[in-house]
C-alpha cells in the first residue's frame, strides 16, 4: 500500500517481530488498606462471556500528587478491585464528620472483572493478559471483534490503546507502545505463521472519528468539511459508514501508516484535567479477510473478520475541566453520546429489557457500536480509572458501567455467507445423490431378481461399501442452524460433506456401470434364449415332419398288410 495524503507517504517504520515486548511480569497488589470483611459487592464472578471486561488503574498524575490527592483504589486480586473511600491514608475513617448524604458514596465497594491491572501494570502486561490475543485470533477466524476503552477524561484510555502523547514518532522497540501497535505486531506474526497453510489473508484498514456528532474519515481530509453518513444495511443487518476510505495493507508498515495518519488528524485539545485530551471518539477498524481453498474443484471459502479499536473521548465534569466555548461544546457532545452509550449498556445488561427497544439511533457512537454491544461480535472493554480520591464519583460510575457491560450477552457468529451457501448446496447435492443411489440399488436388485443371475463380484464390493458407509448428511441435517456452529465445526462439517459427496458420486458411477453390465448380460441371456427357442422351434418342426412321415409310413404299411391278408383269405 502507499497511503498518501497531501502527496506525502505516511511515516512508516518497520518492526518485524514482537522483539522488545518482553513477557509479562506478575501482578502486584498494593495493600495499604485494612481487613476486607463486610464489604459491599456490586458484582459477582461471571463466566467468560462474549463481552469481557478488564479494568486498568493508572498511577496518580503529577497534578494529583501536587494536590496531595490520596489513592482510594486497591487491586485485591487479578480479578477484584476495591474502592476504599472510607479510609484515609493515615488509617483514619473518612466517614467521621462527613455529611450523612455522602456516606453511601463513602462505603467500600468490591467489583469483580475478567482481569484487573493496577498502577504498575506495563503496556506489555496489558497486551499479554487483557485478552487482546484472543480477540485477534477470533478476528482471524472470521468474527467481528471490538476492543474499546471507556472511562472519564484523563483516565488513560489513549495511553492504553496507543501510548503516551510524546510517542508521535514511535521507536519500534519502545516499551510504551499501546495495545493497537502491539496487536498489529501480533497479527502480522500470526499471519507469518500461517503462510504454510492453504489460507490466504487480506488486511484492510479504515480510521474514523465522531466529532460533535459528525463522522469524519481520518484518512480523507475532505470529510472534515463534508462529514460522512451513517446508514443502515439491510443485507448485513447493521449500521455502516458510507464512502469510508478503506486501505489495503500488505505489510505491517502499511497498517502502522494508517494508525499514524489517523492519530495526526484526530481532534485533540487541552483542558484542566488533560493536556492532550481526545475531543472525539475514534474507531480504527482492521479487516481480516481470509480465503481458504475448500476443495480441489477450486471452491474457495472466504471469511470476513475485523477488529475495531475504539478510543472513546472521556466523560468530563465541565466544572472540573474548566471547559469553555469550543471545548465546552465538545464536552457536551461527548457527555451526551456517552450517556446514550451508558443507557444502551444498562438496557442490554438487564435480561428483562435486552429484547426491547435499544436506542442506538440516539447517537452516532451507539449506532456504530451496536454490533459490538449486542450483535454478533466479541468485545473486550477496557475500563480505565484514576485512583485519586478527587475522581471518586467518576471512578465509581465507570466501574458500575463496566460491571453492567459484563452482563451483556451476545451471539458471536463467523461472517461466512458464501461458505454457508456452499455447505447448504453440498448438503442438497448429497441428499440428491443419496436418493439416486437408493433408486439405482433398487433397480439393480429388481434386475437381478428377474435375470436370476448369480451375484457378481462388483455387486458384492458395492454392497459391502454401502453397508460400511455412515451418512454424515443425515446427522448434519439435525444440527442446529449453521450460523450457530463454531467455525472449526462448520469447517469439519464442510469437509465431511465434500468427502461424502465425492464418495457418493464415485459409488453412483460404480452403480451405473454395474447396471450397464447387468443390462448387457440380461440382453445376452435374452438373445441366447431366443436362439434356443428358435432352435427348439426348428427341432419341433423337424420332429413334426418325421412324426408325420412315420405316421404316413405306418398308415401305408397297414393298408398293405390288409390287402395281403385279403389276398391270402381269397
Ligand atoms: N497507565 C499509565 N501509566 C502512565 N501514565 C499514564 C497511564 N495512563 C495514563 N497516563 C497518562 O495520563 C495522562 C492522561 O491519559 P490519557 O490521555 O490516555 O487519558 P484519556 O482517558 O485518553 O483522556 P481523554 O478522555 O481526555 O482523552 C497522559 O499523560 C498519559 O500518558
UniProtKB/TrEMBL annotation:
Gene Ontology terms for molecular function: ATP binding; microtubule binding; microtubule motor activity
The Kinesin motor domain, residue ranges: 50-408
Localization annotation: Cytoplasm, Cytoskeleton
Assigned keywords, A-Z: ATP-binding, Coiled coil, Cytoplasm, Cytoskeleton, Microtubule, Motor protein, Nucleotide-binding
GO cellular component: microtubule; microtubule associated complex
Gene3D superfamilies referenced in this protein's UniProt entry, alphabetically: Kinesin motor domain (3.40.850.10)
GO BP terms, alphabetized: microtubule-based movement; mitotic spindle organization; spindle elongation
Major location category of this protein: cytoplasm
Entry keyword Nucleotide-binding: yes
Compositional bias per record (Basic residues), positions renumbered to this chain: 1-12
Entries under Pfam families matching the protein: Kinesin
Family (UniProt): Belongs to the TRAFAC class myosin-kinesin ATPase superfamily. Kinesin family.
Name recorded for this polypeptide: Kinesin-like protein
Taxonomic lineage: Eukaryota, Metazoa, Ecdysozoa, Arthropoda, Crustacea
Amino acid at each position: 500500500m502507499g497511503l498518501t495524503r497531501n502527496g506525502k507517504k505516511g511515516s512508516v517504520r518497520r518492526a518485524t517481530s514482537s522483539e522488545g515486548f518482553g513477557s509479562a511480569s506478575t501482578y502486584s497488589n498494593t495493600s495499604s488498606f485494612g481487613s476486607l470483611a463486610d464489604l459491599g459487592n456490586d458484582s459477582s464472578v461471571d463466566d467468560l462471556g462474549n463481552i469481557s471486561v478488564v479494568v486498568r488503574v493508572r498511577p496518580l498524575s503529577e497534578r494529583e500528587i501536587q494536590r496531595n490527592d490520596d489513592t482510594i483504589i486497591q487491586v485485591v486480586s487479578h480479578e477484584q478491585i476495591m474502592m476504599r473511600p472510607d479510609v484515609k491514608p493515615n488509617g483514619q475513617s473518612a466517614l467521621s464528620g462527613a455529611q450523612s448524604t455522602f456516606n453511601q458514596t463513602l462505603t467500600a465497594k468490591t467489583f469483580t472483572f475478567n482481569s484487573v491491572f493496577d498502577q504498575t501494570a506495563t503496556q506489555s502486561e496489558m497486551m499479554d493478559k487483557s485478552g487482546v490475543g484472543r480477540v485477534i485470533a477470533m478476528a482471524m477466524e472470521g468474527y467481528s471483534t471490538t476492543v474499546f476503552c471507556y472511562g472519564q477524561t484523563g483516565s488513560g484510555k489513549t495511553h492504553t490503546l496507543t501510548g503516551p502523547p510524546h510517542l508521535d514518532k514511535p521507536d519500534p522497540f519502545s516499551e510504551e507502545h499501546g495495545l493497537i501497535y502491539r496487536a498489529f505486531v501480533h497479527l502480522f506474526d500470526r499471519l507469518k505463521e500461517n503462510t504454510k497453510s492453504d489460507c490466504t489473508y487480506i488486511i484492510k484498514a479504515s480510521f474514523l472519528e465522531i466529532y460533535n456528532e459528525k463522522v469524519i474519515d481520518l484518512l480523507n481530509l475532505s470529510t472534515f468539511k463534508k462529514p460522512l453518513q451513517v446508514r443502515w444495511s439491510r443485507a448485513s443487518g447493521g449500521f455502516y459508514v458510507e464512502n469510508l476510505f478503506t486501505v489495503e495493507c500488505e505489510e505491517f508498515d502499511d497498517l502502522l501508516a494508517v494508525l499514524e495518519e489517523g492519530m495526526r488528524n484526530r481532534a485533540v485539545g487541552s483542558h484542566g484535567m488533560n493536556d492532550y485530551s481526545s475531543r472525539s471518539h475514534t474507531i480504527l477498524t482492521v479487516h481480516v479477510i481470509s480465503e481458504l481453498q475448500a476443495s480441489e474443484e477450486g471452491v474457495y471459502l472466504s471469511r470476513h473478520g475485523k477488529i475495531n479499536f475504539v478510543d472513546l473521548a472521556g466523560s468530563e465534569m465541565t466544572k472540573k475541566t474548566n471547559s469553555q466555548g469550543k471545548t465546552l461544546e465538545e464536552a457536551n457532545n461527548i457527555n451526551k453520546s456517552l450517556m446514550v452509550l451508558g443507557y444502551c449498556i444498562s438496557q442490554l445488561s438487564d435480561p428483562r429489557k435486552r429484547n426491547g427497544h435499544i436506542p442506538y439511533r440516539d447517537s452516532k457512537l451507539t449506532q456504530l457500536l451496536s454490533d459490538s454491544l449486542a450483535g454478533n461480535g466479541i468485545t473486550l472493554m477496557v475500563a480505565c480509572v484514576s485512583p485519586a480520591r478527587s475522581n471518586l464519583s467518576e471512578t465509581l460510575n465507570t466501574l458500575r458501567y463496566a460491571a453492567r457491560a459484563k452482563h451483556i450477552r451476545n451471539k458471536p457468529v463467523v461472517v461466512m455467507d458464501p461458505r454457508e451457501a456452499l455447505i447448504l448446496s453440498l448438503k442438497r447435492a448429497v441428499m440428491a445423490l443419496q436418493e439416486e443411489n437408493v433408486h439405482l440399488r433398487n433397480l439393480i436388485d429388481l434386475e437381478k431378481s428377474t435375470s436370476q443371475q448369480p451375484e457378481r463380484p462388483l455387486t458384492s464390493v458395492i454392497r459391502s461399501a454401502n453397508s460400511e458407509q455412515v451418512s454424515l448428511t443425515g446427522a448434519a441435517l439435525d444440527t442446529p442452524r449453521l450460523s450457530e456452529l463454531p467455525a472449526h465445526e462448520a469447517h469439519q462439517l464442510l469437509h465431511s460433506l465434500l468427502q461424502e459427496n465425492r464418495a457418493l458420486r464415485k459409488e453412483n458411477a460404480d452403480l451405473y456401470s454395474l447396471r450397464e453390465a447387468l443390462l448387457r448380460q440380461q440382453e445376452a441371456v435374452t438373445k441366447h434364449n431366443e436362439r434356443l427357442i428358435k432352435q427348439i422351434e426348428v427341432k419341433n418342426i423337424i420332429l413334426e415332419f418325421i412324426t408325420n412321415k412315420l405316421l404316413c409310413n405306418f398308415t401305408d404299411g397297414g393298408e398293405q398288410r390288409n390287402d395281403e391278408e385279403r389276398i391270402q383269405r381269397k
